[in-house]
Amino acid sequence: MEGGKLCGICFTEAINIKQHLLRMHKVANLEELHLLQKYGSARTTAVLDCPCCVKKGVVRLDKHLQNLHNKTSSDERAALLREAKRFAIIKELRDLRLSDPSVPLVSELDLGTSYHMDQERPGPSRVDYEARIQRLEARLTSLERSHALLQKKCRSLQVAPAPVAPTSAQKGEHVDKH
């Protein structure tokens, strides 16, 4: 995200997420507003569940991902952390809805329209898929360039094929098959 925060209702980016939520979506419940702001920035102090395994309540999920799941790419770890944090915030929204607040909730994140709550794991968001697609497209372009350069080198190095040495059977020698 380029400086914007992800809106948990319409999934667009907004520079001022609080203003966006109040004006565009008329979020009246202050607790929901706070949670949606946290969702937008993917910031929470809650202990997190690992999105790669069934381990729950991981305090240092970044280290857990790096050491136990060999997620060495900081981009990959950051994406998994962001999703785990957003999933924890969705759980808080679900708890808020279950408390039957006097001011009704506007968002539907906790109802499973974006996540399957029965899975108890976050899935990659559309934003993460788009970022991954961009990285893969850049990698593909790089590989295509390398491939073209290697083909060019191979063509420039090609000479007449070396003669193949005849085998003893081709020379007419008798080969004993015992």
TrEMBL record:
Keywords tagged on the record: Coiled coil
The protein's name: C2H2-type domain-containing protein
Stretches assigned to coiled coil: 126-153
Organism, scientific name: Knipowitschia caucasica (Caucasian dwarf goby)
Superkingdom per UniProt: Eukaryota
